[in-house]
Write a structure and sequence with these properties.
Elements (H helix, E strand, L loop, with lengths): L2 H13 L1 H9 L4 H11 L3 H11 L23 H9 L5
Helix pairs in contact: 2-3, 2-4, 3-4
């Protein structure tokens, strides 16, 4: 890539920064922010508005499991497996 192409890619990423932020944060209005950014981002006010909107707290809640619902992964202990099989009644 030439220096001109690198600069063009960086400018496109900077132009779409509000869109990228809204999608990465899981914003509920990410599609509307994308439309605003693409259509009015060329104006400084439209770009700033889209970026501020993308940074608001209207995001999808992340699901967190209760402590009792978390899966505990323990390392395999071959000796414990041998002890447990020897202690069973074989009939």
């Amino acid at each position: 890539m030439t220096n001109g192409q690198i600069i063009e890619v960086l400018l496109v990423v900077a132009y779409l920064l509000p869109t990228i932020v809204s999608w990465r944060r899981g914003h509920r209005q990410h599609l509307a922010i994308t439309v605003l950014n693409v259509l009015l981002g060329w104006t400084i006010l439209g770009w700033i508005g889209a970026l501020v909107w993308a940074c608001t707290t209207d995001v999808e809640p992340k699901i967190e499991l209760e402590r009792s619902e978390r899966i505990r992964i323990r390392p395999l202990d071959p000796w414990r497996a041998l002890i447990n099989t020897k202690g069973r009644n074989r009939t």
